[in-house]
Amino acid sequence: MICAGKKIGFGLTGSFCTLEKSLAQMEKLALLGADIYPFITGIVEVSDTRFGKAEYFRSRIEQITGKKCVTTIVDAEPVGPKNFLDIMVVLPCTGNTLAKLANGITDTSVTMAVKAHLRNNKPVLLGIATNDGLSANGKNIGLLHNTNNVFFVPYGQDDPHKKTNSLICLMDLFLPALEAALEGVQLQPVLRMQSM
Description:
Largest sheet: 7 strands, mixed
Helix content: 25-40%
Number of helices: 9
CATH superfamily: Flavin prenyltransferase-like
Order of helices and strands: EHEHHHHEHHEHEEEH
CATH class: Alpha Beta
Radius of gyration: 15 Å
Structural class: alpha/beta
Number of strands: 7
CATH topology: Rossmann fold
């Protein structure tokens, strides 16, 4: 696999219902020999939800990666000048984080890591999970599709009857999308049907 030995930044944001699935992908990367650097937003760092406690997620991330989670803007900033990552992943990437990335807002460790990494003209891979992907965040997704070095895990509607604007990436396409992004290619097709 192309990701073996790669230095991969891995940002996790507050789509709590998909954190467990994201960690499963992180585990796959670790098993394939990737060197993973974890970044979490403040909301992931402190929030206990029905999907799990903050301490559980943090300790699990640190167990998988063997590294402490980066939780501050100050600690994420060296990603740029040190230029050590091969790719920066955000999985899950919430609508909130999509909007910040599309509009140049840097107020979490994850958005700082992405901004710092992009200055080195290296790939960023976003795995979206947002309830407003086909409404308020549609324009931000469009802007990011048109941004150099930004790639997406293919995505689709996860519940078109009950949550008509919701989009989520297909987790089983994460590794192929990662390998494509490392080669500077967007895995196609981007828009996919979810299995119902």
